[in-house]
Fold this sequence. Notes:
Layout (H helix, E strand, L loop, with lengths): L1 H25 L5 H13 L2 H19 L5 H24 L1 H6 L1 H34 L40 E2 L1 H5 L7 E4 L2 E2 L5 E2 L2 E4 L4
Antiparallel strand pairs: 1-5, 2-5, 3-4
Helix pairs in contact: 1-2, 1-4, 2-3, 3-6, 4-6
Amino acid sequence: MSSLRQHFQRIKEIVDWSWTLALLCLIGYITLGQLVQLYWAMLFLGGLAGSFGIFYEFSCQKLAELDSLNAYELQKANVSAYSAKIMLREFANRNPRITNQFYDFVQANEQVNNVIEKSHTSFHNKVYEQRQKTQQKPSQPPRKRQTSPRPSSPQRVEYLKPTPPKPSQLRRESKLRLNAIEYSRISNQSDYEFVRGYMKKNGTPVKGYYRRKRNR
């Protein structure tokens, strides 16, 4: 009887996760193509575990892409990530077994929080930079009304040159191992490769990280 109950519980979790993924696609946290890949993984590549692993990788990609977004896109990314956090929390509350048995789901939750934090910070930085550029633009001098009928010689007006924008805060890194936040702040991202999280033999979970490529 218990095995039958477990079977129906797993079916319920799969249906619930499928519905949650569809909602995540509607709010824009994942794309339609990513939704298809997640469904495919759930059906043919390991069930929920395979789907959770790919969802975590998509969240890592979303975190890395934030640096190339403008202020409007960053605001949209922050809103979608915050909504995704709420949906994942509700899914975990309905299915408490998930957080205890699937470490990739726990990692995905953490990565969504990282997307929220970074998109929020990057958005405010972009807005600040835009305000600075606006203030640095030279204003047109007001036209003077000529009271004398005789034409006056043209006056030379000097314009202030706008200060060039500050260079990016990205830095080059040579450490052998980086976490997702450190990876997003370096300029030589091509020197590193992503390593998925895994479980040690003693049962200790290891989070996903970025490792320096061996030929570097």
